[in-house]
Amino acid sequence: MKNYLSLAALTAALLSANALGAGTLAGTTITNTASATYGDATGTAQPEVTSNTVTTTVQEVPSFTVLLNGQNSSGTPGGTTFTPAGTISARPGDVVSFRYSLTNTGNVADTYALSPQTVFGTTTPTNVAYYPASADTNSDGVLTSAERAASTPITSLPSVPADDPNTTGNDGSVVYFFATYNVPATATDGQTLGTNPIVSGAKATTADNDNYNQTTVSRSDSGLIGPRDDSNADGTVDNTTNTVAPYQSPEGRTITYSGDAQSASLPYTNAPQTITFTQTVKNTGNRDDVFDITLPTPAQLDAAGFPTGTTVELVGLSDTDGDGILDTGTLAPNGLAAFKSFQVRVTVPAGAMPDAPTTIPSVIVTARSSNDTNFVNTTTDNVLLSGVQFGESTAQPGTSPNPITQLVGAPGSTVSYPLDVYNAGNTNDSFTLSGSVVVPLTGGGSQTVPLQYYVDTNGNGVLDPAEQTAGPVTTTGTLAPGVETKLIATIAIPAGAASTPNTTLAITNTVTSATTGAVASDNNDTLRVSSTGFLQIKKFVDNCGKTNVCPAAPLFTGTAVNNAGAPQDVLRYTVIAKNNTNNVITFLYLKDILPENTSFVSVSGVYSGTGTIYYRVNGGAWGTTAPTTLTTGQSVEVAVDTDGNGVINASDTIAVGGELKMDFRVKIN
To answer: Which of 49, 342, 561, 629 is the most buried (most CB within 10 A)?
Structure first.
């Protein structure tokens, strides 16, 4: 910050110095001879009579003054009566300099020591030093950082001569020096600081210390970020009166201005799209600054109306100050160096659509001053998207909370639920409807069941007889922007559907724009097929006689009858369990007990599917070998290991219609 002494002040200082001079130079010899003039008694003049000559040598009378702006300071810094000798305004980080004059007002040459300065203020000066007048190479009365760096600090003013009263002008008795210091970069607006140069002579030893200067901090850390070439968003190109005009993005899209916002439109596509905006930042503060640039987080982009998967990135910036944030680099407070342009690249996913016609997805770009992190400025980039909303029926048109609907139905039944289609674009549009669910079948495999859609004319969320009679539709018909149509979706569950007690079947629902190809899906709804049928078990008894020759094994469809028997006859008990549900069952085993008055003969098992038969007695360990002995009252069990892991557990499944059979033979005692 420059500090100039006025010509009038300098002139006054010089005149004052001459007026205060001690006069005759020290060491000057002053001689004096007296004389007498007289007459005789008659009054006649006689010759002049002279005295002896006397000699006086002028002694040293050292003195000096130090002035700033031709004046001294008064009072104590910070006090109510304090008046500094000179004041300036400076920015944080500035080098300030004060040009002092020292006048030898004595009658003898002297050398003056420049002692360390007293510092004061609400912030502390740094790099306090003195410099000679010669450091001011351009003679403008101010020391710049470059001039100070090219010079060497001084601690004295040597051999300053006294003013010779017998000559005119400055005989070198007036010299100049600079008191300099740095204003801390952390200084705040309105703070004051200063120094008091302390000067004393080798002969005039009384120090001059009423030379306080004072700097008042003027700090303004601010900046503006706006659309391309319009950082202040006033509609004109920065530093001109020319109106800003739409421009083309690198992708060939037209970007328009509206105040502190830019906008671009993206048509629907089946691929990701990118739009690149150009921003301009200006340093409007009064000192160099670096502006950190930040973009919204994914959560903020989502809240701003962008579809999930949207990304934003900065182009043309680097982290110049190493704080981990991309920035503008150093911007000066004035001129062309005050501006920085860069780009914001927005990429939306394939099939991107707006949340609603009245919601314009926007990117808030923020510039933050590094000098004052509390100062931020923002600008907005808008991305206009076409699209459609589709999902469960909602009370208000255009709202799409898209909750999860879980439908449950039995094989052979029809289930239904309400849906909405909402034109979220900016033109009339119609939308094709499609949907399906894949249902497993009890006999194996699966069946893709298409959804059918009916217009819910009264909007009650229920398929009424008249609506059903009107028949299903495959398109919404033409919808104006912001208009919603309500539908009922139905699913006819096949009669041979397997139950899904532990899983849900995903329902896919899609609408496709007939004009733009925009697609919206509602794929979070599910169907669960309820269980039907039950496990059936039948027991048959046959008399195999004393030779243990049995008739053909009974079938599950047969009828059980009681048989008579005599001692030593073999009875065959046949136990059959059949899965008559609409899904697999697990860890099935059959159990029978050796009756009283009988002896154990044998036991065997067979499964209608693939698996290994296991046996156990009285709840003991399972094994693949059938038992050979059994006592009255003991139980024997038969199971099947269908997954081949050697263990009977829930991973062993009996298919729909599968049968597990036990052949248990005893002899009548």
So the answer is: 342
